[in-house]
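ok so for the tutorial part 2 we go from a plain amino acid sequence to predicted structure tokens. step 1 is just haveing the sequence, like this:
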Amino acid sequence: MPYYKKLYPALLLFLLISCSPDDPHAAGDPYEAGIVLTFDDDYADEWCDADEILGAYNWKATFFVTKYQQLSQEHKNKIYGLELNGHEIAGHGYNHVNSKQYVAGKSTERYAKDEIQPMIKAMGKDGFSLRSFSYPYGSRNGRIDTLLLDYFDIIRGTTYGRYAPQKQACYYNGSRLVFGLGIDQSYSHADIKYLKSLMQYAKDQNKIVIFYGHKPVEKPSGTHQASMKKLEEICKFANKLGLKYYTASELYGLE
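step 2 — the prediction. this is what the tokens look like for a chain of 255 residues:
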């Protein structure tokens, strides 16, 4: 970051080494333990329905929108309403392409020209200033990360599996690349007991846990659907623990 340019190399090395994963807040807990709730795709109706219910818990979420140019004006208005309610509207691709496959067949520059720049332009016309991006399908690599960090403050990938809380990758660690753990019903790890254990660990270790889902529904019946009951339980438990709700872009600069 810019202010590091004035530091001597030896001092910079000391700072990097001292902030190890086992001691992420060596300087003295610069941020509150919290939770980042994120949702992908274009489920404007369901997102707004969820907001009406979860607003009672003073929640805050980040909605990563894809194919914005194809949305009806009604759905665009709903997404704008979510922003007015304090949520973050972020990017999830112009056409929801798999970035690794796209780059393999073309180039990172072409990916930016076809998938990122048009998305920023289309949403920018309606007043959305995108600061965060989530990868469709979680598909990414270091080369694409480097490209996207020129456009966004925070980029979000995905992580999977039912690991012990201390082994999970779904916590903010000071990087602009973060990883979310899925909470949709179709994920085998996503039972509420396990998710609560990750939230408890975040509270105990002063970390920020990151989750992602897609379509909030009352009764999940397919993939990419998150149970409203589970979302309510997550918010209730977050409030019980005193976890702070962060948007994705609010992670930028916390370190």
